[in-house]
Design brief:
The complex is a heterodimer of chains A (283) and B (273).
Chain A: E1 3-9, H1 17-33, E2 38-40, H2 55-58, H3 65-73, E3 78-86, E4 92-100, E5 103-109, H4 121-124, E6 134-136, E7 139-145, H5 147-150, H6 152-160, E8 165-169, H7 184-200, E9 203-207, E10 210-213, E11 216-219, E12 223-225, E13 231-234, E14 241-247, H8 249-258, H9 261-264, H10 267-281
Parallel strand pairs in A: 1-2, 2-3, 7-8, 8-9
Antiparallel strand pairs in A: 1-14, 3-4, 4-5, 6-7, 9-12, 10-11, 12-13
Chain B: H1 8-24, E1 30-34, H2 39-52, E2 57-61, H3 69-82, E3 85-88, H4 92-99, H5 107-129, E4 131-133, H6 139-144, H7 165-175, H8 179-183, H9 196-200, H10 204-216, H11 221-226, H12 231-243
Parallel strand pairs in B: 1-2, 1-4, 2-3
C-alpha cells in the first residue's frame, strides 16, 4: 500500500510536556490538513533530551491524559513519537510509541542507552529488551531509537521480523566539526541510514530534532530513505522543518527483485554461528 | 594543521544559533561583552552581532592606566566596524583605591584584581541593560588554566569555549576581524610587554596541536612522543591541564545529605526553557 509520511523536525522545550504536546498537536493538525497518512516526531519529542533528574517528573503512563489525547488524534492520522514511559512497576524508559485508529499499536523501549562522552542515559532510564516488528495500516514496521540503530543487529532483527519500514526517532547531537561541509555526526548517520536501507531492503525514516540544550545542539537533517538507499527527501540542517514524502509499494517490490538480499539471507546460519560464538566465549 | 582546520561557515552557523537560543530561551534579547582589542573578544563581538543584531550588543573597553593604548584603539575600531554600543570605563579609580591599602601587592595580584573588576562591571552593566554576559574564553586557555577564575572566565555563555586558539584565528579571518587584531600577539596586559606565549613558554601553534591530540584524540603519552613532541613539552602541558582542573569546576561541597547539589541534584541549566 502507498502512503505518505511527514517528519516534524521540532525543537522541544526541556521538561515541558504540556507545551511540547501543544506543538505536537499543531503539527498533527497540519499533517491531517495536508492529507498525510503518518506523522513522526523525534526521540523524546514530548520532553526534550537532557532530562537527568527530571525523568520521573515528565514520565507518562499509557493511561495518562496526554497519551489519551494522542490516541484520540490518531483516529485521523497515524502517529509515532518519543517520550518517557513509566511502566506499571514504576520503571522509566526512553520509549517510542505508535498510535493508529484511536489505539496504541506498539511501544518500543530503547535498548541501547548511550552512556559515554556527553551521554548518560543508563543512569536515568531502564533498558528495553526487545526489538519487535508490528503491523500497521501501511505494512509491517519497526522502531529504533537513536543509538539502537548504531547496533547493527537491531535493524537486522526488525527486518527478519518482517519490517519493511524502519522508523528511527533520534535526538542526535551535533559533534565532529572538521573541514568538511557536514558535521561528523551527520556523515556517520547518513552512511548508516543508507547502508541499513540498502542491505535490508527496507525504507528508513529518520526523524531528528533541532535546538540547543546546555550548549549542545541537535543537527536535524531528518530524512526519508527508500529501499535502495536513495534519499527521497531531506530536512534542513540545524533548523526546524516539516517534510513529507510518499512511500510506494512499487519501489519496495522492485528493490526486492533487483537486490534480493533478504531472500537470500540465511537466518539459520546466523543463529547457528551466533549460538556457537556464545558457547565458545563463555569458556 | 589538518586536524585543527574547521569548516568556518558551518561553525559560524552553529555559534550564531548557540548565542541566539541560549540567550533567547531565558527571555533576553541583549548581550554585554568586554572588548579588549584582542582577537578572542573581537570574534565574540562579530558573532554577537550576527546573532542578536548590533543594536542589541553592548561592548565595553575597560582599561587600566598601564594598559597598552593600542588595545583601546583596536577595540574602538571593532566597535565602529560593527556599529555596536560602545563605552570605555577606566578601572583605574577602583583598582587604585583598593591597592592604596595594599601597596606591596605584586603584579599577579594586581592583574587578577583587574580581571575581576572587569567582570563585576560587565555583570552590573548586564543588569542595567537586561542582558547576558558573553565570555571570550577559548579552549586553549581554559585547558591550560591561563585565565582568571571569576574574572574573564565568568560569563553566562562561552561561545568560543570549544575552539582552540588556532581555530579562533581561522573563524576570525572568515568573519572579517581586522588583520591587525588577528596578527598581534595575545596578551592579558597585566603588565607592559606581557604576552601569552611569553608567559606559557610555548606558542599556541605548538600547544594547540599537542592539546588536540592529547585531549580530543586521547593519544597516550607514548603515542604523543611517537608523534615527535618532546617529553618535556608533553609532561609540562599534561601537568598544567591536570593542575588547572580546579578552575573548571564549581566550588566543591562537603557531602553529608543523600542529595547534594553538586553531584546528586542533576538538572540542565536549560531546565524548563
Amino acid at each position: 500500500m502507498n502512503f505518505s509520511v511527514a517528519l516534524a523536525q521540532t525543537n522541544p522545550k526541556l521538561g515541558c510536556v504540556k507545551e511540547n504536546l501543544e506543538v505536537i498537536l499543531q503539527k498533527i493538525d497540519r499533517a491531517i490538513q495536508e492529507g498525510v497518512s503518518l506523522i513522526l516526531f523525534p526521540e523524546l519529542a514530548l520532553t526534550g533530551y537532557f532530562l537527568k533528574d527530571l525523568v520521573p517528573e515528565v514520565a507518562l503512563t499509557i493511561s495518562s491524559p496526554e497519551i489519551i489525547k494522542l490516541k484520540e488524534a490518531s483516529k485521523n492520522i497515524s502517529i509515532g513519537l518519543g517520550f518517557i514511559e513509566e511502566s506499571f512497576g514504576h520503571q522509566f524508559f526512553n520509549a517510542a510509541i505508535y498510535f493508529e485508529g484511536g489505539e496504541i499499536t506498539h511501544i518500543h523501549r530503547k535498548v541501547y542507552l548511550p552512556t559515554y562522552g556527553l551521554f548518560d542515559e543508563q543512569r536515568y532510564v531502564a533498558q528495553g529488551n526487545t526489538f519487535r516488528a508490528f503491523d500497521t495500516r501501511f505494512g509491517r514496521m519497526g522502531f529504533l531509537l537513536c543509538e539502537d540503530m548504531w547496533h547493527l543487529p537491531s535493524s537486522y532483527i526488525l527486518a527478519m521480523d518482517g519490517a519493511s519500514t524502519l522508523l528511527c526517532l533520534s535526538s542526535s547531537p551535533g559533534r565532529g566539526l572538521t573541514s568538511e561541509e557536514k558535521l561528523g555526526a551527520t556523515d556517520i548517520w547518513q552512511k548508516l541510514v543508507f547502508t541499513t536501507a540498502m542491505f535490508l531492503n527496507t525504507r528508513v525514516v529518520f526523524c531528528n530534532r533541532v535546538g540547543f540544550e546546555d550548549g549542545v545542539h541537535f543537527w536535524g537533517g531528518s530524512e526519508v530513505v527508500g529501499p535502495s538507499g536513495e534519499p527521497i527527501v531531506r530536512g534542513k540542517m540545524l533548523e526546524e522543518d516539516f517534510i513529507s514524502a510518499t512511500l510506494d509499494e512499487g519501489s519496495l517490490r522492485r528493490a526486492c527483485i533487483y537486490s534480493p538480499l533478504m531472500r537470500d539471507e540465511n537466518l539459520f546460519i546466523t543463529m547457528k554461528e551466533l549460538h556457537r560464538v556464545e558457547r565458545e566465549r563463555d569458556r | 594543521m589538518q586536524s585543527l582546520t574547521v569548516n568556518t561557515r558551518l561553525l559560524q552557523r552553529i555559534l550564531v544559533s548557540f548565542i541566539q537560543e541560549e540567550v533567547g530561551k531565558f527571555g533576553f534579547t541583549k548581550v554585554v561583552l568586554g572588548l579588549s582589542g584582542g582577537i578572542d573578544s573581537a570574534l565574540v563581538a562579530f558573532l554577537a552581532v550576527a546573532a542578536m543584531g548590533a543594536e542589541n550588543v553592548y561592548a565595553y573597553n575597560l582599561p587600566y592606566t598601564t594598559s597598552n593604548p593600542d588595545s583601546e584603539v583596536h577595540a574602538r575600531q571593532i566597535a565602529k566596524k560593527l556599529n555596536v554600543h560602545y563605552e570605555v570605563i577606566s578601572i583605574a579609580p577602583m583598582i587604585d583605591a583598593y591597592f592604596a591599602q595594599f601597596p606591596d601587592a605584586d603584579l599577579g595580584r594586581r592583574g587578577n584584581k583587574m580581571a575581576r573588576e572587569r567582570m563585576t562591571i560587565l555583570y552590573d552593566q548586564s543588569a542595567h541593560h537586561s542582558a547576558l554576559v558573553l565570555g571570550a574564553s577559548n579552549k586553549s586557555e581554559l585547558l591550560l588554566g591561563y585565565a582568571t577564575l571569576y574574572g574573564d572566565m565568568a560569563s553566562a555563555l562561552h561561545p568560543i569555549g570549544d575552539l582552540y586558539k588556532t581555530q579562533v584565528r581561522l573563524l576570525a579571518e572568515e568573519m572579517g576581524v581586522p588583520k591587525v587584531i588577528i596578527e598581534k600577539k595575545s596578551s592579558p596586559d597585566f603588565w607592559p610587554g606581557q604576552t601569552d606565549e611569553g608567559d606559557l613558554g610555548f606558542t599556541y601553534e605548538a600547544v594547540d596541536q599537542l592539546l588536540y591530540l592529547m585531549v580530543d584524540m586521547r593519544l597516550s603519552r607514548e603515542e604523543l612522543l611517537d608523534k615527535g613532541f618532546s617529553s618535556v613539552f608533553v609532561d609540562q602541558v599534561y601537568e598544567k591541564v591536570k593542575n588547572m582542573q580546579f578552575k573548571r569546576k564549581p566550588p566543591i561541597i562537603a557531602k553529608v545529605s543523600t542529595r547534594t547539589i553538586d553531584r546528586d541534584f542533576k538538572y540542565a541549566r536549560d531546565w524548563g526553557r
